TrEMBL record:
Circularly permuted ATP-grasp type domain ranges (all copies): 83-459
InterPro entries xref list: ATP-dep_Glu-Cys_Ligase-2, CP_ATPgrasp_2, UCP005522
Organism ancestry: Bacteria, Pseudomonadati, Bacteroidota, Cytophagia, Cytophagales
Pfam families, A to Z: CP_ATPgrasp_2
Protein name: Uncharacterized conserved protein, circularly permuted ATPgrasp superfamily
Domain of life: Bacteria
Source organism of this protein record: Ohtaekwangia koreensis
Length: 483
C-alpha cells in the first residue's frame, strides 16, 4: 500500500484556490475517487505509471519546439499523471460564458470589418483598432461564410483565490494545444484504464469529428466530398506535431504553401494526377505569411493570390483572416462592453482587471506599482515578451520600462493573480503546482460546440506562475464529470 505520507508534502497556500483540497486537509468530493486510488496504489506502481506515460509520449513523438538563440529545440511535452477535475456545474458555467463571449467577438469582427457601429458609437476607440497591427484593411468589406470569423477558439481561463474563473486572454487566430488535450486523454486511458469510467468522465476524442463536420459545411461548392486541407508552415513550426495529428484524425491532406497554387481566383492542390480544387483550408500559417502578394513579400509559407480567392468566395479559410484585431490584448479590455453592446447581456465570465499603458494615467499607476504587475506585449504569445514584476530584478524592470516608453500602446498590465493549484506527481511526491485551462470551442453554421475538457497547463517549477510549455510548463488531462 502507499505510505500515509503520500500527501504530507502537499502544502497549499491559504491565498491560493486549491483544485483538490478545501482547506488544508478536506479533499473536495469530486476528487475523492482519484485521491482514494492514489492512496491505495503502491508507490512503485505510481512510479511505473509515470514512466509508462513518459515512454508513450516519447514513442508517439508528442513534442513541441522551444526557440532559443534562434534555434528550434524539439522537446517531449511534460505530462503530469494526476488529472485536473472539473464538476459538471462548473463546466456548465464555463461553457455558457465562452459561448456568450464568442458570439460577441464574432459580431465585433463582422462589425469592425463592415459598418463599424461599435467604433462610431464610441464603445471601442477608433485609434485602438486602427493602431492594431492585426487589423487588416484588406479584409474591409469582405463577406465571410455564415459571418463566422472565429471557427476555432482557445479561451485561456484562470482561477483566483476565491475560486472565481477569469478569462486571461482570447486566442482567435491559430490557437494550438488541442492535440495535447486529445493525447493526454489517450495516455490517461492507458495508465488508469478503470478510473475514467468509474468517475463518469465526459469524452474529448470527438473533437476532430466536430471540426471536420464544420469544415465540410463551409465548402463554397455544394458537393458531397469537398476537398479540405490543413496548411502547415512545415516541420520546424512549434506546433507541427499538432498539425500532423489533426490532419490524420480528420483524414485530410496536410499541405505546405508550395503544395498549393491559385489559378483564376481558385485554389488548387498539386497532385501526381494533376491539380485538384481546394474548397476549405484549415490554416496554421499566420496572416502575415499567408499571401506574399498582399502581406510579407518574402514569405515562402503561404500561397500567392490566396486572399483574392478568399475574397471572391471561392475558398473558405479557417480561422478567418484578420482575427488578430479581436484578440489583441489591448482590445481584450473591451470584450465585456462588446457583450453588453451586441447581446444586451451582462458578461458571464469576468476579465482580469487590465491597464492599457497607452493611457497616460493608467501607465503612471502601473509604473508606480510594477512590482505587483504582470506586464505583457499586446501581440506576443507563448509567454514571450512578458515581465513578472514580483519575480524580476531592478535591472530587468528598468530595461522593460524603457521598452514600454518607446511604444506604450503595445503593452498592457494586469495585477498578479495567484492561479489555482492542482495536485501533481513530482519526484515521487504529490505537490501543488499552478494551473490554467484552455477549453477549445468550435463555431459552425449550426452553433458553438465546446468539447468538455481542454488543455490544463501546469507551471512545473515550484512557485512559478508561468504555465507556457515554451517557458518550462507541462500539462495534464482535464476531466469534466458528467454528474
Amino acid at each position: 500500500m502507499a505510505t500515509p505520507s503520500l500527501f504530507q508534502h502537499y502544502h497549499g497556500h491559504s491565498s491560493v484556490w486549491d483544485e483538490m483540497f478545501a482547506g488544508t486537509t478536506d479533499i473536495r468530493q469530486h476528487y475523492q475517487g482519484v485521491a482514494n486510488f492514489l492512496l491505495d496504489t503502491p508507490q512503485d506502481e505510481l512510479v511505473k505509471k509515470e514512466d509508462l506515460a513518459k515512454r508513450l509520449f516519447m514513442s508517439q513523438g508528442i513534442t513541441f519546439t522551444v526557440y532559443s538563440s534562434g534555434e528550434g529545440i524539439e522537446k517531449i511535452f511534460p505530462f503530469d499523471i494526476i488529472p485536473r477535475i472539473i464538476t459538471s456545474s462548473e463546466w456548465d458555467f464555463i461553457e455558457r460564458g465562452i459561448k456568450q463571449r464568442l458570439r460577441a467577438l464574432n459580431l465585433f469582427l463582422r462589425d469592425v470589418y463592415h459598418e463599424q457601429f461599435i467604433l462610431k458609437d464610441g464603445v471601442v476607440p477608433f485609434d485602438l483598432v486602427y493602431s492594431c497591427p492585426h487589423y487588416l484593411r484588406e479584409m474591409q468589406g469582405v463577406n465571410v461564410p455564415y459571418d463566422i470569423y472565429v471557427h476555432i477558439a482557445g479561451i485561456d481561463l484562470i482561477r483566483d483565490h476565491d475560486g472565481t474563473f477569469y478569462v486571461l486572454e482570447d486566442n482567435l487566430r491559430t490557437p494550438s494545444g488541442v492535440s495535447y488535450m486529445i493525447e493526454n486523454r489517450e495516455i490517461t486511458k492507458r495508465i488508469f484504464p478503470d478510473l475514467i469510467p468509474q468517475n463518469y468522465v465526459r469524452p474529448v476524442t470527438h473533437y476532430p469529428n466536430i471540426l471536420y463536420k464544420n469544415l465540410m459545411a463551409l465548402s463554397p461548392r455544394k458537393i458531397a466530398s469537398p476537398n479540405i486541407v490543413l496548411l502547415t508552415p512545415g516541420i520546424y513550426n512549434s506546433a507541427y506535431f499538432e498539425h500532423t495529428t489533426l490532419a490524420r484524425l480528420m483524414g485530410v491532406e496536410l499541405v505546405e504553401g508550395r503544395d498549393l497554387v491559385v489559378e483564376n481566383h481558385h485554389v488548387y492542390m498539386k497532385t501526381t494526377s494533376g491539380l485538384q480544387q481546394v474548397d476549405v483550408i484549415y490554416r496554421r500559417v499566420d496572416d502575415n505569411f499567408l499571401d506574399p502578394l498582399v502581406f510579407d513579400p518574402g514569405s515562402i509559407l503561404g500561397v500567392s493570390g490566396i486572399l483574392s480567392a478568399y475574397r471572391k468566395g471561392n475558398v473558405a479559410i479557417v480561422n478567418s483572416i484578420g482575427n488578430g484585431v479581436a484578440d489583441d490584448k489591448a482590445v481584450y479590455v473591451y470584450v465585456p462592453d462588446m457583450i453588453r453592446y451586441y447581446l444586451n447581456e451582462e458578461p458571464i465570465l469576468k476579465n482580469v482587471p487590465t491597464y492599457q499603458l497607452g493611457k497616460p494615467d493608467e501607465r503612471e499607476y502601473v509604473l508606480k506599482n510594477i512590482n505587483k504587475m504582470v506586464v505583457k506585449k499586446t501581440n506576443e504569445s507563448g509567454g514571450y515578451g512578458m515581465l513578472m514584476g514580483h519575480a524580476s530584478s531592478e535591472q530587468e524592470i528598468e530595461a522593460y520600462i524603457k521598452e514600454i516608453m518607446k511604444e506604450p500602446r503595445h503593452f498592457i498590465a494586469q495585477p498578479t493573480i495567484s492561479l489555482s493549484s492542482a495536485p501533481c506527481y513530482i519526484d515521487g511526491k504529490i505537490q501543488p503546482r499552478r494551473v490554467d485551462l484552455r477549453p477549445f470551442a468550435l463555431c459552425g453554421p449550426n452553433g458553438i460546440e465546446i468539447v468538455p475538457g481542454g488543455l490544463t497547463r501546469v507551471a512545473l517549477r515550484e512557485g512559478s506562475l508561468v504555465v507556457n510549455s515554451s517557458q518550462g510548463g507541462g500539462s495534464k488531462d482535464t476531466w469534466v464529470l458528467s454528474h
